[in-house]
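Our consortium's second objective concerns turning raw sequence data into structural hypotheses that experimental partners can test. To show how far this objective has progressed, the report includes one record in full. It was chosen at random from the queue rather than selected for favorable results. The single chain below, 196 residues long, was entered without modification.
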Amino acid sequence: MYEEYISVSVKNDMQDLANAIVDSQNIYVNILDEEVITKGDAYLMAHNSGILMELYQKYNGMAKRFGHIENGTTQNTTAGVAQEISAFFSGMIRKENIDSSNLDDVQIKLNGDMKQKVIKLKELNSIWLSSVKNNVFGVMDKQGDLVFNIQQFRDHYGENILSNNFWVNLVVDIDSDTQKYLHDNDVLYIENVLFN
């Protein structure tokens, strides 16, 4: 019974994690195309980054508790980065009332500095997206748009989701990607990209 509960949780959470990263990529592309960040964009990016932070921490911890990875294999860097990205976008709408009537309202027009920040965030999300594509079945390019096919995901993993180590590999790859991104961009913390 407990294993069945965990399996359902893994299935639902991995869907949410994949969706958050795919959705974020599409939003970054749209922001750069339109050269504006709408209230809806800021809200969704804060939300998606919050999902990444929460689920990364949960599954990083679970992989260690179940003995799938040793302590020290991952540094939990991704959770901290996702938290900072969430705070960055939340700060754009902190005192705003967001509802269906104003999601398309322009919150920020991209200037050169903000555009560079969005480009850097999109680069990082692209790396995460590659890890999702490599580890999670069901992410595909559909006529230029990235989509996550939940039905294909569910059909592929079925009842074996817990014993299939794709979620462990995803946790390890994403954290490795995050650390490499920070190293390659010569920054210790994502705050140096977002708030300078």
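The partners drew two points from this record. Strands lie at 36-38, 106-109, 139-142, 145-148. The chain has a mean pLDDT of 88. Both points have been shared with the crystallography group to help prioritize constructs.
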